[in-house]
Structure formats: C-alpha cells, structure tokens
TrEMBL record:
Belongs to the ABC transporter superfamily. Energy-coupling factor EcfA family. InterPro entries: AAA+_ATPase, ABC_transporter-like_ATP-bd, ABC_transporter-like_CS, ABC_transpr_CbiO/EcfA_su, ECF_ABC_transporter_ATP-bd, EcfA2, P-loop_NTPase. It is a peripheral membrane protein. It comes from the Bacteria. Its main location: membrane. Forms a stable energy-coupling factor (ECF) transporter complex composed of 2 membrane-embedded substrate-binding proteins (S component), 2 ATP-binding proteins (A component) and 2 transmembrane proteins (T component). This is Energy-coupling factor transporter ATP-binding protein EcfA2. Gene3D superfamilies: P-loop containing nucleotide triphosphate hydrolases.
Length: 286
C-alpha cells in the first residue's frame, strides 16, 4: 500500500475568526499502480487534499502513512516523500523559469544532488515520456505552446522519478485539443511506467475515459470512492452537488427511459456503442 489517510482534518486559519474546515474526516488508501480521478466542485477540498499527500500541508488532525510509515513522525524524511510523491500544481508552466527546456527539467534531479550524468539521463527520459523531442531542448520554455509548456513542467516532476504522480487540474485553461492531448499522454505515461496517478479534475467527462477509481469530494468530505461505473449510478446525487456524470451516462439513461433494454453502466463511447448494439441484438461490432 502506498499512501493511507486516516481521519484527516484540515482547517485553514485554525483558531482565527476566518477559519475554514477544508478537509473533514478523510479516510482513503491509495494503492500502488492505481489511476485515480479526484473530482469535486470548486472549493470541495481537492487541492487541499493533494497537498497533504506529499506533506506540503500538515493535517490539523489525523494521520498519513506512506508505505506504512507515519509521515508525521519527527524523524520522517519529508524531503524523500516530496521526491516520491510528485505534485504537479495547477498551471505548472508558471513555475518554468530556466533559460531552456532541458535545463529546466534538470533542475529537480540536480537539486537532489545527483551526478550530472544521472541528472541529464533522467531529464532525457522524462522529456521522452511526455513526448518532447530533442529539437526543443535548447528552446526557451516561454516560446512553447500552452500544452508543450505543461508537458515540460510535468517532465520536471517526472525527472525526480516519483512513485506517485499527482496532477492538479492538468487540463485547466487548455483548449479541447490540448486537453485531449494531455489526458492521452498522461494515460500513455501510466501504461508505460505503471506509476500511481492521481488526477484532480472538476469534470467527470475528463476522467471517465481514463481512470479506474473515482473519489468524489464534497464540502471537504469524501462523498463516493469507487469504480467509475458505480459512481456514475448516482446521477441525481452528483447533480445535487454541482457535478455531472459523463454525457454517455445521460444518453444511456434516456435510451432506457425510452424503452430500450440497455445496460446504463457505460462510461465511455466504446462501452456505450457495445451496450446499444447488444440491446438491439446486433452483438459487438467487429
Ligand atoms: N489558503 C487558504 N486560506 C483559507 N482558505 C482556503 C485556502 N485555500 C483554500 N481555502 C478554502 O478551503 C476550501 C477548499 O479549497 P480547495 O482549494 O482545497 O478546493 P478545490 O476543490 O481544490 O477547489 P478548486 O477546484 O477551485 O481548486 C475552500 O472553502 C477554500 O475557499
């Protein structure tokens, strides 16, 4: 087991008049190799939660274990945790600052005190993983497109060789093409490396095609924690907290209400197509 949160509470400005209870009794376990979508309406506590995963925020109350060790023990190595749980913030491109792409991606491993050879090897590997070719290495990060900048920023975290990659709203501010590209690449990255990924998003649509577990946050608490199909069965409850199921879920429910004996559990277009063909007695398309 990689990360376990036990009864975690977090209050911003505790003991002040402006205190905000951002996390309330959060209990979750993140197992090795999982691909998790962390979903919630704005202000539901997603960013606060992910900053607990690598120790950037310390729980007001509760415990967090990384590989069985309590990260709040006084001799715990927080620096190592930060390199093992890589956090990619919202708009990570705002943190690019070096003169060229390659130097920027080298920054993290160099700071870990690794040799030049190891640092550069890791930077090359990370850039390859996010699909940034050598022709970009000497370019200023500021001359790249929005999607490319974001990939370079992700490479900077990957170069630390984390076991867990946490991406806070990686599609924020991208156009639909950029959004699909970055989600596709994150998914490919997971296939290539098998690493544990936590993908934070407002949108079920964004994550439905990729993740194998969804955690829904509402007002600082975990509302659902299950496989996508099961979460999307709660269409009305999700709507009540300002979220929507993916479009295919609505289409399947409409078809069922119209009298087609169709399974409504499809979460992707391919599953929806197969379910509709099965309901029509046509079997799977070859
Ligand atoms: N630095 C802060 N000081 C005080 N309150 C904060 C701070 N950061 C967040 N909050 C509050 O904590 C709660 C949870 O915020 P958080 O940013 O974790 O939610 P979120 O789900 O990530 O939202 P978004 O999708 O908008 O990023 C909200 O009520 C927010 O206003």
């Amino acid at each position: 087991m990689a990360i376990k949160l036990e009864h975690v509470n977090y209050i911003y400005g505790a003991d002040t008049e402006l205190s905000v209870a951002a996390l309330k009794d959060v209990c979750i376990s993140i197992e090795d190799g999982q691909f998790i979508g962390l979903i919630g309406h704005t202000g539901s506590g997603k960013s606060t939660l992910v900053q607990h995963l690598n120790g950037l925020l310390k729980a007001t109350d509760g415990a967090i274990y990384y590989n069985g060790k309590n990260i709040y023990d006084k001799d715990y190595n927080m620096k190592e945790l930060r390199s093992k749980v890589g956090l990619v913030f919202q708009y990570p491109e705002h943190q690019l600052f070096e003169i060229d792409v390659f130097t920027d991606v080298c920054f993290g491993p160099k700071n870990l005190g690794l040799s030049r050879e190891e640092t550069e090897g890791r930077a090359r590997e990370a850039l390859e993983l996010v699909g940034i070719g050598e022709e970009y290495y000497q370019q200023s990060p500021f001359d790249l497109s929005g999607g490319q900048k974001r990939r370079v920023a992700i490479a900077g975290v990957l170069a630390m060789k984390p076991d867990v990659l946490v991406l806070d709203e990686p599609t924020a501010g991208l156009d639909p093409k950029g959004r699909d590209e970055i989600l596709g690449e994150i998914s490919e990255l997971r296939e290539k490396t098998g690493m544990t990924i936590v993908l934070v998003s407002h949108s079920m649509e964004d994550v439905a095609n990729y993740v194998n577990r969804i955690i829904v946050m509402n007002k600082g608490s975990v509302m659902y924690d299950d496989e996508p199909k099961k979460v999307f069965r709660h269409v009305k409850e999700l709507e009540a907290v300002g979220l929507a199921a993916p479009s295919v879920t609505y289409i399947m429910h409409t078809l069922k209400e119209a009298g087609l004996a169709v399974e409504t559990d499809a979460t992707t277009l391919t599953e929806a197509r197969d379910a509709i063909l099965a309901a029509c007695g046509c079997g799977k398309e070859k």
